[in-house]
Amino acid sequence: MALVLIEDHPRLRASLCRGLNEAGFEVEGLATGQEALARLSRRDVDAAVLDLGLPDVDGMEVLSRSRAAGLLAPVLVLTARDAVEARVEALDRGADDYLVKPFAFSELLARIRALLRRAAAPRWAPLAFGDVSVSADPRVVRAAEHDVPLTPSEHRLLGFLLRRRGDTATRADILREVFGYDFDPGTNLVEVHLAHLRRKLGATAVRIETVRGAGYRLSLPEGASRDP
Ligand code: CA
Question: What is the pTM of this model?
Answer without folding.
Answer: 0.64
